[in-house]
């Protein structure tokens, strides 16, 4: 340290002169600067010492769960034969839990500590995992590698996230249903056309032409009916679609995972069709498409509210980003974030901007109900389209194998959503198998008719995603051929059930409801359109328990009466009702059987010819 007196910074002799006084001032400044510099150096030395003593705490994942399809492995380097067999059996269990998919986190301890592996150990571990996958008939895909840098004294260590997916066998691919919502002209059908056909749009709607079912839809460019499109992923995570002139049957054969898109109408005029699609087809997820240049407009808020009321997890796609400046896109995203964070929604928006975000979003989306991923893309330029494909490829199913097995153990119940007459085949019904297992040649009963009866029939052939299928399992959608069964006896909203079941039909039922919106008051005598699963019928309010009338936001137990014919309902089923601007949600709490109870003697035989 420099002595200030020796350096001449402050000299008693000079302080008596004018210049000396100036020097003295300079000396004071120098002294202050020196102290500041010394203070900074001291702090830096102390910080370094503290950093050495207090290293950043190591990052953690949640502890490994016994159930589910996620497995943590510290390393898989040169296992013995016995150990390898044990690891393969463990992988088989995880695949079963994930219905054909499993995620392995390599370099992670069972308690979730991210330890990481050296490059050589990581390479050996991935090689072992590949051998394990081959043994159980699966493929592996490296989703991402991340560096673990909390300890700077070590060499660079990495953890790897690997997707293991079974190679398809006997048509048992994983099938996820995604309902596509959004305002009219937001680009829903065009986006689906690009994803499923494998060709970008020309900016004038060429990609959507194959999706339309009616001439007026082609002429106006607006969807008015419900259509289904499929997008497959093989065991290596590669997209399988119509781009290579494949038929639907070929797509099903080569796919380990199938995304079935339910294209719904955006125009307010077709709202009842959109609600029917959401309630009857039981979508696993909903994709809300918002146009970047118009933002939240028209039915966007209404569709978002419907999905949330039915507790369908939702992710958002901002389309048409090629049409506007970056600032406009950012403004639309901010607008969406504001709406999602409002008290009614309580969502956590997550903007996806790179593949790593897409992987994180797919995993957190199903684990937490409040996460809402947001994608910004273009169907014309193809910008960020790959991020959406990565997300859909990794997206895990909501139900695990245990829940699936429990549903399959129950008696057969098939919901009738569509009815067709096909030349040379006869009557065909489309819908979803709610529970049990349905096979070709199985005998079921269908109803209720207007009189509340159930009629016998026999299932001919089964088609799933436009390809022949021998066995239909709970949760899967399909079309069933019924031969010469009279089509006029069928209607949407019916169920086909096992003859062993005693179906509960009702003309009146009670539901615990909350009135979301009503212009005036909701009272006895009000008529509303009720949606419960695949049932859609007008009902009259018979009474409100404990209240004379309801206003917006109020709750009550209400008794409804169907005005046309009895329906098959399940206790606890979600209910949604509407009439004009009136909207409400709830669940069925009690079923009141009709005066003439269902009797097995009411089942009428029909002479059916086999195919």
Automatic annotation (TrEMBL):
Which residue windows does the record flag with biased composition (Basic residues)? Answer: 29-52
Region annotation Disordered: residue ranges? Answer: 1-66
Name the UniProt key words of this record, in alphabetical order: GTP-binding, Nucleotide-binding
List the SUPFAM superfamilies: EF-Tu/eEF-1alpha/eIF2-gamma C-terminal domain, P-loop containing nucleoside triphosphate hydrolases, Translation proteins
Output one GO MF annotation: GTP binding
Q: Which CDD domains match?
A: GTPBP1_like (cd04165), GTPBP_II (cd03694), GTPBP_III (cd03708)
Q: Which family does it belong to?
A: Belongs to the TRAFAC class translation factor GTPase superfamily. Classic translation factor GTPase family. EF-Tu/EF-1A subfamily.
* Name listed for the protein in its UniProt record: GTP-binding protein 2b
Q: Which source organism does the UniProt entry give?
A: Stegastes partitus (bicolor damselfish)
